[in-house]
Fold these 2 entries.
Entry 1:
Amino acid sequence: MGNRAVITTGKNDTDIGVYLHWNGGRASVEGFLKYCELKGYRPPETDNYGWARLCQVVGNYFGGGLSIGVDIRSRLDCDNWDNGVYIIRNWKIVGREFFHGAEQMDYPLLDFVKDIDAHMPKNEQIGDEKIESLLKGGDSE
């Protein structure tokens, strides 16, 4: 059992999706998306580079193992009885499917984005001060 979720950009069976076995709660997913946005990565709906960067960020955060997968939506565990499917656009959650439980908002966004940053290679890190500066003004709630 995990804390599963799928992140995708659409509702079609052939849409690409990223499967998270851990950290699939809304607070974590919003943190991963916000980190990608702060880095200036192209969104996944734009092209495959957005998917690659999202996978890189999540993979760096988790480390090795079987915590992340990529496939077309029809081959992913969308109705997973944990967090279901997040539909995203421009690094924001715009829809949700197959969600049956209580929302998980365990991590303050600012703290989680800093934690994600700490798991990135040193030369890729944003830095705590810059993250605080970029998130100040109400975006960190």
Entry 2:
Amino acid sequence: MKRLIVPVVLVGCIAALLMGSAASGKDATGKAGTSRYLVISPHTPEECLKALDEVSAMGASTLKMYDFGCKAGDHTGYLIVNAATEEEALAKVPASIRDKARAVKLSKFTSDEIKKLHEQMKS
């Protein structure tokens, strides 16, 4: 009986920790109330160098977050960011081209969720 006490208490503590973090409303980054957004920021070939300069001026950490299609002829900046709102995600785009940018809230699906969607489509 005494041998069972430590494992039972340990399992209970782990369960309490897991339930507490799930109930806190925090995402995988540990930030409460944030979601992942794909930010798509197009610019013209004429705006390209200015857009690159402005992103660079926002700091090395912001520049590092971006991927660009410019070298392939797709003058668009792409980044995935954790933010509380779409507006907060768009704040990572230079003001001069922000009006053309959009932020798409990203979601993950489980296999079970996909199966349920198929079942709903049948009925």
